[in-house]
Amino acid sequence: MSGPASVALCARVENVSRLFGTFAALRQVSAELETGKCYVLIGENGAGKSTLLRILAGLLRPSFGTVRLFGDLEPQDARARIGYMSHAPMLYDELTGEENLRYFASLYPGRQCLSPAAALSQVGLDPSLNRPLGQYSQGMRQRTSLARVLLPQPELLLLDEPFSNMDVESVRQMVELLSGFRHQNRTIVLTTHQRELAAPIADYVLALKAGRVAYFEPGSPTR
User: Fold this and answer.
1) Within 10 Å of residue 161's Cβ, how many Cβ atoms?
2) Cα–Cα distance for residue pair 57/73, rounded to 1 Å
3) What pLDDT shows up at residue 3?
């Protein structure tokens, strides 16, 4: 799906296929992603959602086809501008939220990062909460994961199942947070099994089925 020539593109995916042995996780997927929009990837388990997200993040290379970000950069060369939140939390249960973020911030030497306190505040968490992450609710854990992704102030947010195992109120809070980031001209690509959860912020919905694009259509985000 392509927009007008004047629209700024964050990513261009052209005829991308990804093989794992003889299994094709993605089959000739093409899409253009506009800057400042939210794209929701839906589909059943094994449809290829996480594979496409990992290719956009530069963690996997396509077997065939091309991906270009921010003009003509390969994802591997644009990692400093990408924030990737995996399905696994990638956090340490024995540390507090701020201690976790302080550690992850140390992995970006020379980068202009948010302070741990600022990143936690952006996702609605109290930086002074003196409780190990293992005692956080699932919603708090997901927001801490998002704060980790926000530390280097990425332009492209790639979120794998950000609503996983969250209650209704936690989902509402997460959607509200993501809506604010979209209005900061960040591009968001997220995966979910439940389209309705992301409906309030979905500018576009891309459905995958057995590795192919089933449809790519405008959403109806709440402004």
Assistant:
1) 20
2) 12
3) 44
Could you identify the residue written with the tokens 């899409």? 31
End-to-end CA distance of the chain: give it in Å, rounded.
22
Order of strands across the sheet that contains 212-218: 82-85, 156-160, 187-191, 38-42, 204-209, 212-218
pLDDT, tens digit, 9 for 90 and up, residues 28-86: 999 999 999 999 999 998 999 999 999 999 999 999 999 999 999 999 999 999 999 99
Cβ–Cβ under 8 Å, residues 14 and 65 = yes
For the chain, list the domains and their CATH numbers.
9-218 (3.40.50.300)
DSSP bridge partners of 89? none
| Distance from C-alpha of 209 to C-alpha of 223, rounded to nearest angstrom | 29
Q: Rounded to two decimals, what is the model's pTM?
A: 0.91
